[in-house]
Write a structure and sequence with these properties.
By secondary structure, the chain is of the alpha/beta class. The chain contains 8 helices and 9 strands. It has a 6-stranded mixed sheet with strand order 3-2-1-4-5-6, with helices on both faces. α5 (145-156) crosses α8 (216-225) and α6 packs across α7. The longest helix is centred in the C-terminal third of the chain and has 20 residues, at 178-197. The model has no long low-confidence stretch (mean pLDDT 91).
Length: 226
């Protein structure tokens, strides 16, 4: 049976965080609490939130680097990918996040097509009240299967490949036919140009070769497609 899983950064204002959970109109079976390793106040709040929720809901704490957007993206995507692979629905609630973590949550939601919520304030009858809002995320540009394969291969090689020729060899194998090789190289150059324009790879000339490296965003894509 599928579950509804929440991913939620934690800050010291535990009452606001608990309120945000109650206001989202979805059942909850599991909550991941995202924490900075050195944030003692948030860790105390997380312990209290866990005590409150643990009676009926499974709670798991996950530590992220709150100062590195793409490091946080990768950690969030690992959770998302695992839960999606088990057939579960993922909801990201960024109410308690810092600016850096909020951006990471947004990117992870967009890459995984997960629902994204935040607590907002509005004025009702002259009073400021909290309202949980689903922020609709525009779809990403679709990346073709050939480009996805290239990203995955570079990721499997540790995030970089020493040359276009090496990438062709990994993707299509060696060939001694000059005409076929030139066609392979033209296709690869075309795909790499598109990936570079999309910010997923960078190409750096080193001597006679061009090294291809995944960007941080490219690594996030690779994680979702592996």
């Amino acid at each position: 049976m599928s579950k509804v899983v929440y991913i939620m950064p934690v800050n010291p204002e535990k009452e606001i965080l608990l309120e945000s959970i109650k206001k989202i109109d979805h059942p909850i079976q599991k909550v991941y609490l995202l924490l900075g390793k050195d944030d003692n106040e948030s860790q105390k709040a997380a312990e209290e939130i866990e005590k409150t929720l643990n009676v009926l809901i499974e709670v798991e704490k996950t530590y992220i680097d709150e100062n590195d957007v793409y490091s946080a993206v990768l950690e969030i995507l690992k959770i998302v990918k695992r839960e999606i692979s088990e057939g579960n629905e993922v909801i990201v609630n960024a109410t308690g996040s810092t600016k850096t973590v909020c951006i990471a949550c947004y990117i992870a939601s967009q890459l995984s097509r997960s629902k994204f919520y935040m607590m907002m304030q509005k004025v009702e009858n002259g009073k400021v009240v909290n309202e949980i809002v689903e922020l609709l995320i525009p779809p990403l540009k679709k990346i073709g299967e050939d480009k996805v394969t290239i990203i995955k291969i570079i990721s499997e090689e540790g995030g970089e490949v020493e040359s276009i020729n090496k990438l062709i060899e990994l993707l299509e194998g060696k060939t001694k036919d000059q005409k076929e090789y030139m066609a392979q190289r033209a296709r690869m150059s075309y795909h790499l140009k598109g990936l570079e324009e999309d910010g997923l790879v960078v190409m750096q000339r080193e001597g006679k070769n061009v090294k291809i490296k995944l960007t941080e965003l490219g690594k996030a894509y690779a994680l979702m497609y592996q």
